[in-house]
Amino acid sequence: EAAAAKMACCSCLCCRCCCREGETRTPEELTILGETRDEDDEILPRKDYESLDYDCCINEPYVEVLEGMDNKKAKKYEAVKWLLVFAIGISTGLVGLLVDFFVRLFSQLKFSLVGKSVEECDDNVCLAVSLLQLLAFNMTFVFIASVLVLIEPVAAGSGIPEIKSYLNGVKIPGIVRLRTFVCKVIGVLFAVAGGLFVGKEGPMIHSGAIVGAGLPQFQSITFKKIRFHFPYFRSDRDKRDFVSAGAAAGVAAAFGAPIGGTLFSLEEGSSFWNQALTWKVLFCSMSATFTLNFFRSGINYNKWGSFQLPGLLNFGEFKCTDGDKNCHLWTAVDLAFFVLMGIAGGLLGALFNCINKRLAKCRMRNIHPKAKGIRVLESLFVSMVTTVVIFVASMTLGKCRDLSTPTSNTTLSLVECHAYLLPCTSFALLIFTFSFYTPQAVLT
After folding, report:
1. In whole angstroms, what is the distance from residue 95 CA to residue 88 CA?
2. What are the respective helix, strand and coil percentages of the chain, to the nearest 5?
C-alpha cells in the first residue's frame, strides 16, 4: 500500500516533491547542474533568506525626526559616522595583522622542524620521515580549519559572493555574525599555514565586512548581555554603508591598495552608492592600510614607521641600484613581452575557470549529498596530495641556494634546474585546491 501511494504521489504533478525525500542538494545546486525537471523546480526565495530594506521609508515619524534634527545634531551624527569608519579601518588592519602573524608563526614552527629533519637526512628513508612530519603538520592544520567550517558553514570559501549578495539586498543568515567572523579568521590562518593553495585576500574582505557590520552596532547576538546604549545607525541602509567600508578595508589590507579597495566596493560589491560614501570608504581603506603597514614594518623589520610592508600580498620592490645610471626597469621592447604575458594569463585564467566549474559540478553531484564527515576526509585528502606533490617537487625539481649580493652581472635565482616545471605544478595544485574549496565561485 505504501508503494502504491508513493507511485500515485509521483504521478501527480502537484505532489512530485514528496518523491525527493532523499534529495539534500539545494535548488541553486540543482539549477547549476541542470537537473531541474519542470517549472516547479525553479529557484524560489528561500524561507531563511530575507531582503534588506535599503529605501528610506518616508512616514510621519521619520519626517518628525528630520524636522527635529538641527544643524548641530546633523554635524554630530556625521562626525560619529566618520569616527566609526576610522575604527572599522583600524580593526580590519589589526585582523590582517593577527592572521599574518599567526600564519608566519605556525609556518616557521613547521618548517624549522621539518627543515632540520631534512638537513640531517642522508638517504631516502630519512626523507620519508620528514615527509610524514610535514604531513602531520599540514593535515592537522587543515583538519582544524575543516571542523570550523562544520561549526559555521557560512564561513566556507572566500565569502566574497555572500558579501556581494548582502550589499545588493539579500540577507543571508549568519553572514555577518560574530561566530562566522571567528571561524573565518581562525580557519583561514590554519588553512594557509597548512600549505593549501589558498590565500588570505578573499577572507579578509569577508572579515572586514563583518567588522563593518558589527562594530557600529555596539552589540552582538552571540553575547546578548553585552549591550551599549548607542541609538545611531540601526537601519539597513546605514549598516550597508558600513559593510561597504569594511569590505573595501579588507581589500586595502590584503593588497595594500586603498584606492583599489574603494573601487572594488564601488564597482564589484555595491549597487547602492553616493558621493559622500566614496570619501568615507576611501578613508576607511587608508586607515586599514596604514595600520597593517605600520605594525608589520615594526614587527618584521623592527623599523616602526618605515612602512615597508603595505599589504598581506607583496610582490617585492623593483628599483635600480643607487648610482647605476645605465639601469632601466623596462624598455619599449619589454612591452611586447608584457602583452604576451597578459594573453597567456588570460588563457590560463579561462582554463582555470573551466576546470574549476567542471570539478565543482562533480562535487555537487557526488560529495554534497553525502555526510559532512566525508567533506572533512575530502579536505584531508587534498592536503595530503598537495603536501606530497610540493615535497617531492622541492626534492627533485630544483636545488636551492643562498641569495648572493646583487650586481650588474649577477642574476638571482632560487632554483637552478627544471625551474620551468614548478609553475606548472603550482598551477595544477591551484586548480585542484580551488575546485574543492570554492564551489560558490560558480554562482558568481
Report:
1. 10
2. 65, 0, 30
Q: How far apart are CA 171 and CA 164, in angstroms?
A: 10
Domains in the chain with CATH codes: 2-44 (no CATH), 49-317 (1.10.3080.10), 347-444 (no CATH)
**Residues 431, 156: Cα–Cα separation, whole Å:** 17
Q: How many H-runs (helices) and E-runs (strands) does the chain carry?
A: 14, 2
Q: Which helix (H) or strand (E) holds 130?
A: helix 124-151
Evaluate whether 94 touches 88 at the Cβ level (below 8 Å).
no
CA nearest to 151, candidates 222, 239, 254: 222
Its pTM stands at: 0.73
Residue with cell 524636522: 67
Confidence of residue 308 (pLDDT cuts 50, 70, 90): low
Q: What is the pLDDT of residues 340-399, one digit of tens each?
A: 999 999 999 999 899 988 888 888 777 766 777 788 888 899 889 888 888 888 777 766
Residues in a beta bridge with 171: 50
Radius of gyration of the chain (CA): 26
Residue with cell 529605501: 55
* Model confidence at 87: pLDDT above 90: yes
DSSP 162-178: HHHHHHTTEE-TTTT-H
Are 161 and 443 spatial neighbours (Cβ–Cβ below 8 Å)? yes
Burial (0-12, 13-18, 19+ Cβ within 10 Å), 289: buried
> Strand, coil or helix: what is 50?
strand
C-alpha to C-alpha distance for 188 and 11, rounded to whole angstroms: 48
Q: Which uninterrupted H or E stretch holds 51?
A: strand 50-51
